[in-house]
Predict the 3D structure of the following.
Amino acid sequence: MCGCRDEMRAIIVLNPSESKRLIARAVANLPEVRRALKEGRLIIGHGTTNAFVAEELLGERVPKWRYAAGVIAGGRLDVTENESRLPPFAMKQEEPFGSDWVELLKEFGRGDVFIKGGNAIDPEGNVGVLLGSDVGGTVGQISGIVAARGAHLIAPVGLEKLVPDVLEAARHCGITATDLTDGLPSGMAVLPAARVVTELDALEGLFGVSAWHIASGGIAGSEGSVTIASRGRPTPSSRPSSTPDRWHRRSRSSGASVVSCEWRDAIGLVPATAPHRPLRRPPCRGGEALQSGPYR
């Protein structure tokens, strides 16, 4: 029997890959997504978060770099090589669609689902997508059909991409309107009527808890991380079928007692009153450059 309080509060830190995995599992559990995969049509657009979504839905490993098209990498706006890029997953009634995904898109109707990631999200839930193609890329191909036919557009986006105003951001982009750029000149499109799934939505959907974004960023492997406060009543039904490996490792290696309730076990947190040892050096190879600097 769980000996914890009726309501529990927790603070968790998620690095970008953990956020992507959490969001992917929430997307894979959406009723409209499960229904489209089983009975209708489902297309998973390019993107690293969508690669995680594909893994959760299809049960196979997807190379993240090869499933990306436009990327921000090496301090530049860029695109991956078309020759090595994997095509988007396109499914019709649980079977891979043989032709190009655009042909399946032409069949879209009520209840079908297109999953499209984004590069920016604002507090109002608007999602922005950078466009390296002067004809609009994937967004240009899908927007009219999805909107006209009443299909579902799902947008999994991590809060590391939070910006003040996506609509304002879009006004300052444009391939031919840009004079100088780090990498590929880009425009920005705003996704129409998308159902957005962030870490906060994922925690609510998978665990049945309320969640708030309280901090961002970090060092030594936590660059791009988001810190989230959550609160709720832990119940057996709130535990997802699986959780990120790092959460399990943290609970096993912490040395602190872990309250034995489903929600607490699932996210692998230690009690706030447990002894804490301050860091003496960066905990991962990604922070080695800091050892000779002010954080030593």
User: Anything to note?
Assistant: The CA atoms of residues 108 and 145 lie 8 Å apart. Residues 8-292 form one domain.
